[in-house]
Design a protein that fits this description.
Layout: H1 2-8, H2 12-20, H3 32-41, H4 47-58, H5 67-72, H6 75-80, H7 85-99, H8 113-120, H9 128-137, H10 150-159, H11 168-175, H12 182-192
Length: 195
């Protein structure tokens, strides 16, 4: 991490953020399928409501959900756990893409960020932002930046004293200076909003 910090500190503003902010270490997650289930479940819901639905959903299974097991759960059972109609279609789509090998988790280590994003965004309900969060927080890819993220754009505006929030394209361009550690820069930017 020392080398990463040294590299990011070349940017004077980022150096100041780093010196005033502590971030948690990223830990890779191995259960890709269930991480993506959670990502779908937690969309547009507050944490408590999403957690409650997710826990009821898990009770539908005797063991950890797999693509095959999920594909066999009925609409009625998912509905009884509180899963909305739209999210039920997303979950079936996710299971289907794992089963038909559109998503090849065994190959993630050999694939580029873009290849993984292309695979994941073929699932209904997983957009580019969700795929980028997966790259950051599940696979711990070091050079991911999500220009559509409102928090990141707000943090850039505040820390770099811009008169208005940068548009996604501008934010993406701006973030190039943090390559190849844009994920870590993003963690510091998000955390800076809480300081």
């Amino acid at each position: 991490m020392k080398g990463i910090i040294k590299s990011l500190k070349r940017d004077k503003v980022m150096k100041k953020i780093i010196e005033n902010t502590e971030i948690s270490e990223l830990k890779p997650k191995k259960d890709y399928f269930n991480t993506l289930i959670q990502s779908i479940m937690y969309q547009q819901l507050n944490g408590k409501a999403a957690e409650s639905i997710y826990n009821k959903f898990l009770l539908l299974f005797k063991e950890k959900p797999t693509p095959k097991l999920l594909s066999k759960v009925s609409q009625e059972d998912l509905a009884s756990a509180g899963v909305s109609r739209q999210k039920r279609s997303y979950l079936y789509s996710l299971a289907g893409k794992f089963l038909d090998k559109t998503i090849k988790p065994g190959q993630f280590n050999d694939q580029t960020d873009e290849e993984i994003i292309d695979e994941l965004t073929q699932v209904k309900g997983i957009g580019k932002w969700s795929a980028q969060m997966f790259l950051m927080f599940t696979l711990n890819r070091m050079d991911v930046f999500a220009p559509d993220d409102l928090g990141l754009r707000k943090a850039i505006m505040i820390n770099y004293k811009m008169s208005e929030m940068p548009k996604p394209k501008q934010a993406e361009e701006f973030a190039k200076k943090w390559a190849p550690y844009r994920t870590i820069a993003s963690l510091y930017l998000w955390k800076s909003l809480l300081n």
